[in-house]
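Late entry, written up from scratch paper. The run itself happened at the end of the previous shift, but nothing got recorded in the book at the time, so transcribing now.
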Amino acid sequence: MGYLREIPRYGAAVVRRLRRRSASNFQLAFVFLGPAQRQALSHVYGFCRVVDDIVDDREDTPVGEATARAELDRWRAEVAAMFDGRSSALTTALGRRLAGVIVSYQLPREAFDAIIDGVSMDLDHRTYADLGMLEQYCYRVASCVGLLCLGIFGDQSPGARTYAHHLGLALQYTNILRDVGEDAARGRVYLPEDLLARYGLTPADILSGAGGTRFLDAADEFADIAQREYDQAWRAFDAVEHQRALLPAEVMGRTYHAILQKMRRRDYDVREQRTSLRRRDKLRVAAWTVARMNLLAAIGSAVPSRRL
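Output as recorded:
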């Protein structure tokens, strides 16, 4: 049982590092990576930020939309050049850096393309008719980011890909719920229209802040949908052979799950303020996740193999 004594010591080291590097939930992943991995992940994150900002920061005019579409098309061409090995065709410093990351970590092209397709959906839709349509959007803008992270983390096995698929949906659904107020201020409603209709609501009610307890019931159902994705992600995680490689994703997943639970406890008070965790709560979640993974690894190694 000596491994049990190591857990608090390792957890304490993690807490010390997190105190130095906990500006955002995404940055929690950086703490558990080596320098080369951190740099690679920062380039992937930079790509996601750039294409997302093209859409979010555009002028809300036909000219602004046309400009955004043209810029996204230029990034589609940049991705094609990165994967075709045409370094002379790369037009951005980020593209040149990403080309090296793609080779080093064998990142999938389809994930980059899907992320661009996902952010471009925000040019076409201010609402989403049903969960199927929303799931496609969330898979592109969140799950596909997770698929790129897998290569950097070091496990692109089928089980890890299933885990990233469901965890990405869970994280994005959590973000959608906690950003209801901010999105409404921008004229956007991501909660599916058919879900709202079950409670006698329309997107106009969300934009205006109407709905009362009906909104709480709709939010609770959407939280249940997010919870199911967390559950599916964790079932997939249990079957992954190299779980330690996924520690950064697990810390992020457990952090966002804690945010979802906090929204439930606060009766979905998401229209006036954005739910977040205090720094000490983030540290607690991260330390608990590390300790749990260490314990599972220690128990697994202590169990004799039954294979012949």
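The mean pLDDT is 87.
(Scratch paper discarded after transcription.)
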